[in-house]
Design brief:
The complex is a heterodimer. By secondary structure, chain A is mainly α. Chain A is 79% helix and 0% strand. Chain A has a single domain, classed as Helix Hairpins (Orthogonal Bundle), CATH 1.10.287.3510. Chain B is mainly α. Helix content of chain B is 76%, strand content 0%. In chain B, helix 1 runs antiparallel to helix 2 and helix 2 packs antiparallel against helix 3. The N and C termini of chain B lie far apart (64 Å). Classes of the chains: A mainly alpha, B mainly alpha. Chains A and B meet through helix 1, helix 2 and helix 3 of A and helix 1, helix 2, helix 3, helix 4 and helix 5 of B.
Chain lengths: 99, 170
Amino acid sequence: MELQTYLLLSAVTFIIGVVGVLARRNAIIVFMSIELMLNSVNLTLVAFSAYLGDVTGQMLVFFVMTVAAAEAAIGLAIIIALFRNKQTVNLDDINILKW
Amino acid sequence: MNVETIFFYLLGAVFVGSALMMVTRRNPVIAALYLILNFFCLAGIYLTLHAQFIAVIQILVYAGAIMVLFVFVIMLLNLADERRLSEAMSFKKIVAAGLSIVLLLELLYIFVYRETELPTLQADRSIEIGTVETIGKQLFTKFLFPFEVTSLLLLAAIVGAVVLAKKRLD
C-alpha cells in the first residue's frame, strides 16, 4: 500500500468535513463535521508515523484525541446552554455576537 | 491483490461513504450513527498501518465516549420539531461548495506535483512502534510534560462543561 493512498483518503474526508462545516446549519452536525476533520488529520499523522518509522505521529494522535474529547464536552455544553436560551440549534438564528 | 489490500479498499470505501452520508443526513441521530460507522472504519484503517493502540483508543474514546455524548445531547435537546430546520440558504451552499472544491484541488495539486519522493512503509518498524509498550514508554519519558498538561486540560474541560450546562449561572 502506498502512502499516497492514505493521504488521499485523508484529504477527501477532510474536504467532506469542510463541506459539512460550511454548508450545514444544524449546530450538532457542524460539530460532528469538525470531529470528522480531526479524524482525517489523525489518519495522516498515523500514516506518516508508520511510513517514517517514528512514534511521534502516534503520540500526537493521542493528544489530539484528548483535546477532541475536551472540545466535545465543552462544545456540547455550549450547545445545550444555547438551546436553553434560544430554543434552536440553527446557526443562522444564533447571532447575538454579530455586530 | 492480497487480503490486506482488499481489506483496506473496503474500509476506505465505507469510510468515505459514511462521511458523505453523515454530512448530508437531515436527522442528527442518523448522522451520528453514520459518524460512529466512520470511526469504526478508521480504526480498521489504523490496523492496516499496524497502529494497534491507536485503533483501540479510537473505538474506546471516539466511537465509545464522544459519540455517546453526542447521541445523549441530541436526545436531551428534543429536536423532533427541529427536523424542518431551514437548510435552504442556497447562496451559502454554493460558496461552501466552491471553497471546498478549491481546497480539494489544492490538496490534489500537492499530491501530483510534489518535489520529494514519499517514504515507503517500514513494516517491521511500524509493527514495533504501534504497540502499547512503545507508546507507553514514550508517553512517560519523552512526552511526560504534555501528558501532565493534558490532565489539566481535561480538568478545565470538566469544570467548564459543568458550569456551562448548569441551569442557573448564579
